[in-house]
Amino acid sequence: MLTDTTCKNAKAKDKPYKLTDEKGMFLLVNPNGSKYFRLKYRISGKEKLLALGVYPDTSLKQAREKRDEARGQIADSIDPSENRKAIKQAITINAESSFEIVAREWFDKNMTDKSESHRKRTLGILERDIFPALGNVPIANIKAPELLAALRKIEGREAFETARRTLQTCGLIFRYGVATGRLETDVSQFLKGSLKTVSGGHFAAITEPKELAALLRAIDAYSGSVIVRTALQIAPLVFVRPSELRGMEWSHIDFDAKEWRYLVTKTNVQHIVPLSKQVIELLEKIKPLTQHGRFVLPSERTPNGSRCMSDMALLAALRRMGFSKDEVTVHGFRATARTLLDEVLNFRPDFIEHQLAHAVRDPNGRAYNRTAHLAERHKMMQAWADYLDSLKSQK
Fold this sequence. Notes:
- By secondary structure, the protein is an alpha+beta fold.
- The chain has 3 domains: about 5-95, Double Stranded RNA Binding Domain (2-Layer Sandwich), CATH 3.30.160; about 100-190, DNA polymerase, domain 1 (Orthogonal Bundle); about 210-395, Intergrase catalytic core (hpI Integrase, Chain A), CATH 1.10.443.
- Helices cover about 50% and strands about 10% of the residues.
- The strands form 2 sheets. The chain has a 4-stranded antiparallel sheet with strand order 1-2-3-4. Strands 5-6-7 form a 3-stranded antiparallel sheet.
- The longest helix has 20 residues, at about 160-180.
């Protein structure tokens, strides 16, 4: 039998030679000094060799353990060489068929004709919400409850539209996997009706960047009332409720702090809207026209500015621009901001919820005050305004 000293002191010769151990194992010493543990065995009447490791990376003890494991397989009529090949092949197949590998392959083959913003958003959702949970799992092994669990996390931050869109994207990936022979069934089909839907008054909103860019350019080009155009230009930048936008008062604007402070009628709490430089510029332009009255955006039928404009004025302008009520509403800018700030600009959901004046609470159940995350919200609102400008410049 071999000893560690024998293995260590074995010197290279002009030709390869063997130092035998027992039960078919030996150490092969090559002319270049390399030393390999090998097992000679017979199965199905054929003599074969199995590599057990390289000395000294594989110790004599470890080589014997591998030998005994292989001999156990031989006793069960399993060829250890073929078994090792099958395991390597399975590992390779699993690696090549993981959800992330299949998803990226689908993305490269099917998203080339989509806009850059759409490609970025789709891949961003997968990288943030799906790959961490399911990326390394072989796509054929993913079950409907596992996919639903990943989607529930998206719903947990109240991004219901994002969750729905992510399910659709995963369905496309699973169907691509079926078409390319990676799995038998698209498990996403079993989740229909499993996700939450936004109930109640649903307001049409544009959440595709390319479509939003077209809307923003149309607003800038609106040839009707200057006050109405300004209102529509401010609306997506501040994404407040339409009644709050129309009720904006000059006395509530702090140009030095770049903030708009007012009472939210729906919740009866004070709210702060950080104003981007783009909003400040719009207010400065309209100031000579309306500063004599109470409202920033007064009704044109009330020359003294004692009444704010009507909701119909804004809706009518959108209709004249060719956008139907099923495509966009002023209230829909809230959903637009909620979706794209989360999916594209990756701002924290609680920052967004605060800015929407929603009732956000801390882990202890206490409602956050109106100044919570104010500095971060200032940065977010400027980033949002800059993003909208960038969309308008893309043709």
